[in-house]
Specification:
This protein has 12 helices and 18 strands. By secondary structure, it is an alpha+beta fold.
């Protein structure tokens, strides 16, 4: 696995990361390859293969995080710290009890049951794994009324269809308009396979749209041009689905200025990361992050300096 990834990286990497041209061409395909399902990983394959869900109550909403897979990568500085000083990378890793030369993460979808709807945010990488996780939460694909995308990288959209048919046959597809336009102009294989057949019937949204009662879209561009977060609010309780605003619970949170390889616009990605993290910390909003350690639910607190933050995993805060 790693040798293949490294061969691909060696052909497209520059000193500052993926070139904009290659990001447009490969942005959809590369994450899909690297974000292999748990069944193909050495870390906890059985958990995702059998279906895994973690459910909390948020006001009148029920929120379930669905495990879509896990991943371990080598040389993570080449993914999460393109502009990082190697010595600082090593020190930060050591301070957080992490090996500097490898990093793991999760791929977590969010299912939200509201009084009006059952919505899944992103669809994972492998339809069968997504359906198994959905079953663990107590639902079948036909129960889902809305599929809401944060963006269109392959690890977020590859569970939309299987063998050319929609995985969620009764669901309305909702997607950011800017994201749909970007990938239509720069289509990768995951977009062509899983989004293009459905996009004509999709509802395309813009910043600040209320996609469902109590759920508002908030633009967070940089990772991709149309990357979107979603703020849930029910009966005074709030939670933000942050998607790929920050992709590692240490490197991207404690050093949001470090560039991330998969961000199409790396400077904008960094600025957006800082803004999202600052809001979560200042307003003490819990969040679900797609690549945070499963169950991917936590908080953001001030860190070791101005503009730096730290991740606090949720434990029993949502217990009844």
């Amino acid at each position: 696995m790693f040798s293949l990834i490294n061969q691909m990286e060696s052909g497209i990497m520059t000193k500052t990361g993926i070139s904009r041209r290659n990001a447009m061409k490969l942005g959809g395909a590369l994450p899909a390859l690297i974000a292999l399902p748990a069944a193909a990983q050495t870390a906890a394959p059985a958990a995702a293969a059998e279906g895994k869900a973690h459910t909390i109550k948020l006001g009148n909403f029920q929120v379930s995080t669905l495990l879509g897979g896990t991943n371990m990568r080598e040389k993570p500085i080449e993914t999460f710290g393109l502009n990082a000083d190697p010595s600082e990378w090593a020190l930060l890793s050591e301070a957080n009890f992490l090996p500097a030369e490898k990093a793991g993460n999760s791929f977590t979808m969010t299912l939200v049951k509201t009084p009006e709807a059952l919505a899944i945010f992103d669809t994972g990488m492998v339809p069968d794994v997504t359906v198994a996780a959905l079953a663990a939460a107590g639902y079948a694909p036909g129960d889902v009324t809305h599929v809401i995308l944060t963006h269109m990288h392959g690890d977020h959209i590859s569970g939309l269809t299987k063998d050319g048919a929609p995985v969620f046959p009764n669901a309305t597809l909702i997607a950011p308009k800017a994201e749909a336009e970007y990938w239509a102009a720069n289509p990768g294989d995951p977009y062509k396979t899983h989004v293009a057949p459905l996009i004509d019937k999709a509802t395309l949204i813009e910043d600040r749209a209320e996609v469902l009662p109590g759920i508002h879209a908030i633009a967070a561009p940089g990772h991709t041009p149309g990357h979107m977060t979603y703020l849930l609010e029910s009966d005074g309780a709030r939670l933000m689905i942050t998607a790929d605003s920050f992709n590692h619970y240490v490197y991207s949170v404690q050093r949001p200025e470090w560039h991330v390889r998969f961000d199409v616009d790396k400077d904008m990605g960094s600025e957006t990361r800082k803004k999202v993290l600052a809001r979560l910390a200042e307003e003490r909003i819990p969040f679900v992050g797609y690549h945070m350690p499963y169950p991917a639910l936590g908080y953001i607190a001030p860190g070791d300096g101005e503009g730096h933050f730290r991740y606090v995993p949720a434990t029993y805060q949502f217990a009844g």
